Amino acid sequence: MTRSSDVVVVGAGVIGLAVAWRATQRGMSVVVVDPRPGTGASSAAAGMLAPVTELHYAERALLDLTLDSAVRYPDFVDELQAVTGHDVGYRQCGTISVGWMGSDLAALRDVADFQRSLGLTVEALSAAELRRLEPMLAPGLPGGVLVSGDHQVEPPALVAALLAAATAGGVQLVDQPVAALRLDGDSVHGVELADGAVIAAGQTVLACGAWSATFTLPGERVLAVRPVKGQTLHLNGDPGALSHVIRGEVRGVPVYLVPRADGRVVVGASSEEAGFDVRPRAGAVHDLLRDAQALLPSVAEMELVAVRTGLRPGTPDNAPLLGSIGVDGLVIATGHHRNGVLLAPVTADGVAELLESGTPPPSWKPFDPLRFDEVPSRGEPAWS
Amino acid sequence: MTRSSDVVVVGAGVIGLAVAWRATQRGMSVVVVDPRPGTGASSAAAGMLAPVTELHYAERALLDLTLDSAVRYPDFVDELQAVTGHDVGYRQCGTISVGWMGSDLAALRDVADFQRSLGLTVEALSAAELRRLEPMLAPGLPGGVLVSGDHQVEPPALVAALLAAATAGGVQLVDQPVAALRLDGDSVHGVELADGAVIAAGQTVLACGAWSATFTLPGERVLAVRPVKGQTLHLNGDPGALSHVIRGEVRGVPVYLVPRADGRVVVGASSEEAGFDVRPRAGAVHDLLRDAQALLPSVAEMELVAVRTGLRPGTPDNAPLLGSIGVDGLVIATGHHRNGVLLAPVTADGVAELLESGTPPPSWKPFDPLRFDEVPSRGEPAWS
């Protein structure tokens, strides 16, 4: 069986669905292929939209991209909610980063200084200010850092809304695994499914996160993306226990708590290199509960509703792979690592522009999917 | 709608189902009523059959009953497996009790001395012997105590086999809640269901664990049974990590690990007074993982498959409520607390005998369901 469309998108996570929705809005016919839509990294994500708080040293280019996407978020959500009638839980909540002990706080303050040096708005909190803003936090925390502009969204609700918007816009969803890209010399013409069916398409968008490196591209190339296992705990408590997203460093290990308006709390996230293993690991659950309780003792009394595991698409520099690789008919939109939910609007807008005009946004230069080709592999020491 | 039978059993856990099976074997017609068969305390139980290891001070009468039931277990399982073709996972594995630090071990050795004084076979293990028997345990454990005769069974498999045996024997299962006992003066004549239907029966067996106290008995009596919430963690690891059931005291808090032959491990159990709340509590999950890891570090690498919560039917002296209470047509078989799986054979045999002959086994004297009637309630201080 063969069907054909202007565009086929491989992957129905937040990135693939947002791309598909935006492409239909520009008049393209779109098929999205995914054996289990919305069940990958998107389903385990906590939904923090925190470009400033997420910033790490030497990630300046990524900061610009995340800030750009954060600016697009209000309109993106308004439009999505208007089209679908869904509520995706978008709200401003601010982020407070807290240190569990003095050395944790010192490290947070150092990052805050770096953030301020870039012109970002970051506010130091004393122990007393911290206690006033979040009285349920553990007594004795030495202080923190406030970024009041941060937002959150609920990823499962976002995925559901994107699915609804995409299908309402005419996107066809095919819940089959993709076996291979249809290569013809140095160009791509759609995909071949596991059941032998073919989806012919003028342009193919690879947006299947950690699985993007399982496809061989023309020239035997493989994308520099790897699965980084992350686990989140989904708890149910009393509404009002927390007013802000809390990000902590507990003896050097990061943990966060994202409160929903109705008392649910998402705790995350482990970070493990474990290939494609998505089984919940008991030790990660323990460590998350231990560190979350250290910051918010009432976690102990909350209901543990679920443990979710996702595979972040990690890259060598933690920034995404966006744009073309010199292969006709192929667009890359993967490697979003910890930032897929936040980067969905800017990615979808840029890919739609690229699909229509053939040219990516100029700001995507730092995210060239082939930028790692010159990096020696780990098996080849640089001094040899 | 009215149906009638010789016996109606309220509760389809291991106790109710074993009673029903044994009663049909004596030629009685039996109906079992339970809105969700096999999902109560039986479903969360780990299935340790450990009369010696479970023994606590001043529970001599209970010890005799548990030893009696342990002796009946091999035939009970053989017969059940022969009738149904099910494998219930019955096997000898022995129990090793380990102390996490010296004071924990001292407490275990004191209990062992008490057990030995009763003529039970209990063996002290040095740190080196412990390490030889269970090399995966944490380094540095000070020693332990071995009871090599202990067995285990898999409660979900046991429940499934009992269901199969009971229905094969002609037991009818009604998956409705019971609204009330049908009282007539000082006698009971079956039950009334939530949907208004009636099951008339010459004899009614109350075997619904923690829920047994929700029924009012003739004379406005209520049984002295209360829910004691327990949580177990169901893990998946490599086969062979443990050869024995491990019971530990970690800084005074008990924890156990029950290894199945295929690498699964059940970790238990919290003990909480929380009414009929069966939501998994994050703090209990944390504490179980912490203490299980302290004894067996490789727990951290196991998959967390499920958290199960059950309500043990607790009684003031931790022993069950068995037999008659001077009410025609009513038999009590509840309050088995931590020992329901172990006590199923002796309870079922005794209840079947009582239903047939009108006389309970003489050894049940200490388990008179009304033995607490003289105890002042907690609201009435003894010195007033």
Largest sheet of chain A, in brief, is: 8 strands, mixed
| CA gyration radius of chain A, whole angstroms | 21 Å
Largest interface: A-B, 21 and 21 residues
The 3D shape of chain A can be described as elongated
Oligomer: homodimer
- By DSSP (H or I, 4+ residues per run), the number of helices of chain A equals 9
Note the gap between the termini of chain A. Answer: 52 Å
What's the β-strand tally of chain A? 19
Model description:
- Two copies of one chain form a homodimer.
- Chain A is α+β, with helices and mostly antiparallel strands and 384 residues long.
- The first copy, chain A, has helices at 14-25, 41-44, 51-54, 60-84, 102-117, 127-133, 155-168, 282-295, 340-357; strands at 2-10, 30-33, 48-49, 91-92, 95-99, 123-126, 143-147, 151-152, 172-174, 178-184, 187-193, 198-206, 226-236, 245-250, 253-259, 264-268, 303-314, 321-323, 330-334.
- In chain A, α4 crosses α9.
- The A-B interface holds A 233, 235-236, 279-283, 285-286, 289-290, 293, 299-305, 307 and B 233, 235-236, 279-283, 285-286, 289-290, 293, 299-305, 307.
